[in-house]
Amino acid sequence: MAEAAENLPPVADIFNPHSPEYVDNPVPQCLALAERGPLVWYEPWQAWIMTHMDDIMKCWKEEPLSSDFYDWEFAPQRPPEDQWSNFERAMIGHSLLADQAHHRLVRRVTAPAFSRNVVDNIQAKIEPEVRKLFDDLGEPETFDYIEEIANHIPFISITRMVGIPEKYWPQIKKVILTFTETWNPTISDEQREAARQDSNRAIDIIREVIAERRLDPGQDDFLSTLLRIEAENKGFEEGDIITLILALIGAGADTTLVAQQWTVYSLLRHKEQIDTALASPEAFSNAFCEINRWGVSSKMGFARYAPRDMEFMGQTLRKGVMVLMMPHLKDYNPDYYDNPETFDVTRTFDPDVMFGYGPRYCIGAALAKRQLFLTVSELYRRFPNIELAEEPERDPGDHNAIVFKRLLLRTNCA
Ligand code: HEM
């Protein structure tokens, strides 16, 4: 029987994703938090945490809460429209996040931009760049996978995918690395503000790129596709294109970087499963779910905000309060997975929720998996005898995920 709440230690004592213990092994803390109930108040972040999968799936699907960062009680004030900077224009004015009806419209009209054909074309552009990374690497005895390969992948794929010309790359590089900090509630106001400034500059560049592209539209990338969609769809405008590009940067950069590290690390820890994992893009797609489950790299989860004072899952939520959905809490729970300690790339995932679920399902899922498959396959093709040169030290400094300080690999190619 559950212990009376007054006999239990405060939640912040059993769960702290920024603690060294969590970074070292998040599993006991994740399990302990989920034990506290389906919706748990987390004082340090002034947020509710949703811990059970059936509630999370329902919330993903039915969207009773807001996804708009500006609905958060601690978000900066929404300034009047005549004072909007680039950032506010993109995040409020045409927000993909704010208005559910507009979000559905954007998802519907942009679906062709993520069709199989377009993803294949984008992939074809990324492939030579990935090969070049490995060519430049040569055949060193050891190398840091993060420094030499993983760090470059989000940038390569986002610039190639969107179609940002090389002359703009140095300016856009920084924002790709810091964009998600603009709305992270767990970092300082100063850090968030600095990230916002970077975004303002990046939006100027994106505007320039769009203006150039309007003069020379016939290219085979995401931007040209979006400009065609803009011409054909009332209600979808340049502001939506900018917001969408920012969303791709925000959602596609950090995630890819983390995924690269954990994919290589997990597979090298289980070398006997590499051939199975890389047998086909489909096999890899399943293996990636297992990599993600086994690694439990998440520190935060997915944020939503109460749109008004409301009753929700038996609790009274004040307007603007944050609710974090944490699907990763289940990853070592034996009620969800048999033998959760065992890494098995053929494990069945039903449902597979790695990329979310429902109306906000990840736009970039196909691209992310293909890009990972491509890079990791190239790594093993070049270095069939590669191994971890050391157990990597974890970096406690990352705001969002458990990552490694470096991932030193020994090529054994001599
Ligand atoms: C391994 C890498 C990735 C993972 C694990 C991942 C996971 C997710 C998840 C779980 C969501 C839902 C978030 C929520 O409900 O709040 C999401 C949304 C999204 N993802 Fe990804 N993602 C990845 C890579 C990418 C990439 C490469 C792109 C862009 C090319 C991308 C673009 C997006 C966008 C735009 C959304 C918001 C969709 C919407 O609100 O309609 N993601 N992603």
Account of the 3D structure:
This protein is α+β, with helices and mostly antiparallel strands and 414 residues long. It has one domain: Cytochrome p450 (Orthogonal Bundle). It is built from 17 helices and 11 strands. The protein has helices spanning 11-14, 20-24, 27-35, 53-62, 86-93, 100-110, 116-137, 145-148, 153-162, 169-178, 189-215, 222-232, 238-252, 254-269, 274-277, 281-295, 365-382, and strands at residues 39-42, 47-50, 142-144, 302-305, 310-312, 315-317, 322-325, 387-388, 394-395, 403-404, 408-410. Strand 1 (39-42) and strand 2 (47-50) form a beta hairpin. Helix 7 (116-137) packs across helix 9 (153-162) and helix 7 (116-137) packs parallel to helix 17. Bound molecules: protoporphyrin IX containing FE (HEM). Protoporphyrin IX containing FE binds at residues 60, 107, 247-248, 251-252, 255-256, 259, 302, 354-356, 360, 362-364, 367-368. GO terms for molecular function: heme binding; iron ion binding; monooxygenase activity; oxidoreductase activity, acting on paired donors, with incorporation or reduction of molecular oxygen. Its cofactor is heme.
Fill in the keyword field for this structure.
metal-binding; globular; 8% strand; four-stranded mixed beta sheet; 11 strands; 414 residues; Cytochrome P450; heme; three-stranded antiparallel beta sheet; alpha+beta; oxidoreductase; Cytochrome p450; Cyt_P450_B; binds protoporphyrin IX containing FE
Q: Give the low-pLDDT segments.
A: none
**What number of domains?**
1
| Small molecules bound | protoporphyrin IX containing FE
Oligomer kind:
single chain
What is the alpha-carbon Rg in Å?
22 Å
In whole angstroms, the N-to-C terminal distance is 60 Å
Architecture per CATH nomenclature, i.e. the level-2 architecture: Orthogonal Bundle
The succession of helices and strands, N to C, reads: HHHEEHHHHEHHHHHHHHHEEEEHEEEE
